[in-house]
Amino acid sequence: MYTPKHFAETRLEILHGLIRAYPFATVVTRTANGLVANHLPFELVGGVVHGHVARGNELAQLDGAEVLLVFRGPDGYISPNWYPSKHETGREVPTWNYAVVHVHGRLRVIDDAAWLRRLLETLTDHHEAGQPQPWKITDAPDDHIEKSLRAIVGLEVAIERIEGKFKLSQNHPARNRAGVIAGLRKRDGDGDAELAALMSIQQESEP
């Protein structure tokens, strides 16, 4: 991934934070038919990510394969009109701000019903936590859960390398960055509030 120095994010707590906040990843791997991409939610546990797929998915047959997981945070178009400097010099152009984390490792396929059940319990407890009446696996009949577990396999990727690119206007002076944050909040489109919040956190965390 092309990452200019001012956009590189190396702090593990920040990278892990994005994975936890945006756990739906694109999984890229090479097969006999070329590159394949799948889209799956993962759970980060220490330096490992866990997920699952249907047995019919090609990933279920790729134990040991090298994989790239792309976790994408908020993103959005940035208008040069939001830069105070544009109104002074005109020397600004549009861009796109975003945050991504790339996880590199090897795929481990896990065919173990007890392991899968624990994973699904963890995933559902996590994502149902905000519901008025959170759904639990025990809400479904045992035979239905057993049938569902037979239809999937687990995935585990130990993180061998992790890299982050947080392109959040760090190459601009503070007043331009403040203008972008204000512009995003005013536009308030899909993901704009999240991108503005991430820019604010990034700016506050800088030395």
UniProtKB/TrEMBL annotation:
Its domain of life reads Bacteria
InterPro entries (alphabetical): Split_barrel_FMN-bd, TR_PAI2-type
The record's section on PANTHER family has: PROTEASE SYNTHASE AND SPORULATION PROTEIN PAI 2
- According to UniProt, the name of this protein is FMN-binding negative transcriptional regulator
Coiled-coil segments on the chain, per record: none
